[in-house]
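Quick one: structure for this chain?
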Amino acid sequence: MMPLESIIMYAVALVFCVIGAGLLLALARPRTAGQVYAFRMIGIMALSGGVVLAMSATAMWQWSQSP
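Got it. Here's what it folds into:
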């Protein structure tokens, strides 16, 4: 069974990934130079943070299953 900590980490990772992807997809519409810079930087950081958090949750889950 998956520990509660891993479930929480996966949920937070999902939120980060959705926000990051949403910001990057928002770049499809015309934006000012400042918005492009901010959306790109925050979007990439949120998306990468979500991916790293999901990898950490997977490692913690696998570690908790080892005897």
